[in-house]
């Protein structure tokens, strides 16, 4: 009797860290339904291909339809192959997708990702496309099965949606109003993860420090950080992305006083100009923003602060742009993720007058990037001579094989490439090194490793990789990003500049 091979799946993810986390859920749902991950590099050669889309770029739809078009002939040659489209673009475009790409089998939204296996089966049986877009959240994503990308680091979602009305951002319209998760459920998930070997978690929310708005507790987020500090075995806690409006002194105190909360902060600026911030409907001004930075540095002197900046927002003058440059000089960001403004369909900013000419935006963007490159390099040079504990990362150093190095993340999330020691070191283990060289985007520790600490996280990585063959494909991101949790690269905002 022939044994039927299990069906394979591939998930392609574009956009923000929310989508990365949702894709982990989609993978978990599919594996729970009996599918297996397609080998890395399958490039559409799977029984089910899922696109988890982003809608915040001006040409996001063109990119999606281009990718769908490339799969059409593959589907023709492969009977039974199915294609599903989910995420923010699916939530926005709905029926348009199957009209433009009638070979798509399933379209689902941001609120009903749990329905994917059912919709795939329904499409197979009925032999017609299934379009199901829920208008409100059906189940908090963290209640769904998951197939996490990392054995030693994990996202933990604490809220979904956003109550802000930034004029450049379409996310609230697609993700809905903010909905907070119960603190007990969050802590229970973290404890379970730590029990499995995870040693680093990133608390995730569209506006993470607004947590508690559902119950009217403005200190709920700082209380959550402190509670994370009580979880034995949890070595590193990070969070993204906060909003300056909701960033309160109790959060700074909790960061400074909770040992496993890392000295790292991603604080989206977007613009240093008060008139532009007002036009963006950002409920803070330059003085407020710089005041937060000053307080954080006073409480956590070695904190690495990163940001998002949009250049060329409608109506931005040269004077407005110079104010952004001023804030960059004052704040001394370790990194800034800069975006040239582009129209987000469906946002108020897309129809504003005084759209800045492309060539002006480009010139300003290049000036800002040049300034920030120098600042990042200067700030990294201050790390030379410091002794740092690194959590060894997987896949962070593209040249590690050729240079005989490994890579890891410092507590402040800086990327450090270090000399490979004689003894075995696994992702999730912790090494102690001395920084010897600084570049704008990374550090080097060229001397001998001072100490190697084998960890339960490293054990978990080793166990997982021994059980998995072939190695699962990685999530492909289409925008500047935070990244999949295993490397935990330098944090950005949501990837869409909407925080």
Automatic annotation (TrEMBL):
Residues reported in the UniProt entry to bind [4Fe-4S] cluster 2: 162, 166, 169
Cofactor, how bound (note): Binds 2 [4Fe-4S] clusters. One cluster is coordinated with 3 cysteines and an exchangeable S-adenosyl-L-methionine.
EC top class named in words: transferase
Domain TRAM as annotated: residue spans: 381-449
Superkingdom, taxonomy of origin: Bacteria
Family: Belongs to the methylthiotransferase family. MiaB subfamily.
Name under which the protein is recorded: tRNA-2-methylthio-N(6)-dimethylallyladenosine synthase
Source organism per UniProt: Streptomyces olivochromogenes
């Amino acid at each position: 009797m022939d044994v039927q091979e299990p069906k394979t799946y591939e998930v392609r993810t574009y956009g923000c860290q929310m989508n990365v986390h949702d894709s982990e859920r989609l993978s978990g749902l599919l594996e729970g339904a009996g599918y297996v991950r397609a080998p890395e590099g399958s490039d559409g050669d799977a029984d089910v291909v899922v696109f988890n889309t982003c809608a915040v770029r001006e040409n996001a739809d063109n990119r999606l339809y281009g990718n769908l078009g490339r799969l059409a002939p593959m589907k023709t040659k492969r009977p039974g192959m199915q294609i599903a489209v989910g995420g923010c673009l699916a939530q926005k475009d709905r029926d348009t997708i199957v009209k433009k790409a009638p070979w798509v089998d399933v379209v689902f939204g941001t609120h009903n990702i749990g329905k994917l296996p059912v919709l795939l089966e329904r499409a197979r049986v009925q032999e017609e496309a299934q379009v199901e877009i829920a208008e409100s959240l059906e189940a908090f994503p963290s209640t769904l099965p998951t197939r996490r990308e990392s054995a030693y680091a994990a996202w933990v979602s604490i809220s979904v949606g956003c109550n802000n009305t930034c004029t450049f951002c379409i996310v609230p319209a697609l993700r809905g109003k903010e909905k907070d998760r119960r603190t007990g459920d969050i802590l229970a998930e973290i404890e379970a993860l730590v029990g499995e070997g995870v040693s680093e978690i990133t608390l995730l929310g569209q506006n993470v420090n607004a947590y508690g708005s559902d119950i009217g507790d403005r200190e709920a987020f700082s209380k959550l950080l402190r509670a994370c500090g009580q979880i034995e075995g949890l070595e590193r806690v990070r969070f993204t992305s906060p909003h300056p409006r909701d960033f309160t002194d109790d959060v700074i105190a909790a960061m400074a006083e909770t040992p496993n909360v890392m000295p790292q902060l991603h604080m989206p600026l977007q613009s240093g100009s008060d008139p532009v911030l007002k036009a963006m409907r950002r409920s803070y001004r330059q003085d407020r923003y710089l005041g937060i930075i000053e307080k954080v540095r006073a409480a956590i002197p070695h904190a690495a602060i990163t940001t998002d900046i949009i250049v060329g927002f409608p109506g931005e003058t040269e004077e407005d742009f110079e104010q952004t440059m001023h804030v960059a000089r004052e704040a001394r960001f370790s990194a800034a993720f800069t975006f040239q403004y582009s129209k987000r369909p469906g946002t108020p900013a897309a129809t504003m007058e005084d759209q800045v000419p492309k060539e002006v935006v480009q010139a300003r963007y290049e000036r800002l990037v040049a300034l920030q490159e120098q600042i990042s390099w200067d700030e990294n040079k201050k790390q030379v001579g410091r002794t740092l504990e690194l959590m060894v990362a997987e896949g962070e150093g593209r040249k590690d094989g050729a240079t005989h190095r490994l890579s890891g993340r410092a507590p402040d999330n800086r990327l450090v490439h270090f000399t490979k020691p004689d003894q075995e070191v696994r992702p999730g283990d912790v090494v102690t090194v001395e920084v010897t060289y600084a570049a704008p985007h990374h550090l080097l520790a060229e001397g001998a490793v001072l100490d190697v600490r084998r960890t339960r996280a490293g054990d978990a990585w080793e166990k997982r990789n021994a059980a998995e063959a072939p190695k699962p494909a990685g999530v492909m991101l289409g925008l500047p990003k935070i990244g999949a949790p295993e490397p935990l690269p330098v944090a950005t905002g949501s990837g869409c500049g909407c925080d």
